[in-house]
Amino acid sequence: MTNVAQRSIAVLAGLLLAPAAWAAEPAEVPLETVVQAQMTADKEASASQARVNDIDDETRELLQKYNQLTAEAESMTGYSDHLALTVQSQVEEIALVEKQLVEIEDTAREVMPMMQRMLDRIDRFVELDLPFQLAERRERVQKLKDIMGRADVTISEKYRRIVEAYQIELDFGRTLEAYDDKLLGDPEGRTVKFLRMGRVVLAYQTLDGKETGYWDAEKKAWVVDDSYRQAVKDGFEVALKMGAPELLVLPVPAPREFKPESKS
Fold first, then answer.
1. Same-domain status, 145 and 249
2. What's 227's DSSP letter?
3. Alpha-carbon distance 93 to 131, whole Å?
4. Which uninterrupted H or E stretch holds 181?
5. What sign has the CA pseudo-torsion 243, 244, 245, 247?
6. Which conformational region is residue 133 in: left (phi greater than 0), alpha (psi within -120 to 50 degrees), or beta?
7. Could you give the maximum distance between any two Cα atoms of the chain, in Å?
8. pTM for the predicted model, two decimal places
9. Quick check: 29 pLDDT over 70?
10. Which residues span the domain enclosing 114?
């Protein structure tokens, strides 16, 4: 190869290598551009962190609301279950009350006639018994008659009062009592002292002690018999606890045959 040719190749190679060499040399960037780019990057990073923080706060808030709603849902579920049990209990209680009302109606249909018979019997008994404290006893029976037709008085209360009246009448049969009252059927309407020994003897004595008598159950009338004056006087002292209990000789009616009531 000639020298001319060699120089041509060297020049061509130099030309070809020159751009590569130029490109390898670092380009000089202004400082302001670098600072500006760094500031922009910092701003974008700060903005990104702020968005991350906002998302994190929002996520926490949503999680808190979720937990709160979940707790409320569980509470409502428990309350709903409790209400369901309460409603079921009330339904059962209503059914029981309705059943009891039916039973009460059935019982009322059976008990009311029985109580009416009891009332009729005690009314008749008072009228046939010894005539002691008749005003009080008749008033008690009349009150029973009055409440029998009242709807505001329960069946149990009606029955209780009838039984109470029976108990009072029963107690009369085992007590000794002295009291003042009008002499039944007396034309003068005198007030006398009465002596009642159970349901066996009912005697009286005038307040001045001059007249003594007793009720004759067979004759249904008062019989004057002053021979019992001292016995009746002693009976007053025993009844009023002013004297010691002692044997009293008083007119006792003879026992009679019991005749049961006929069923109609």
1. no
2. G
3. 52
4. strand 176-182
5. negative
6. left
7. 197
8. 0.56
9. no
10. 55-172
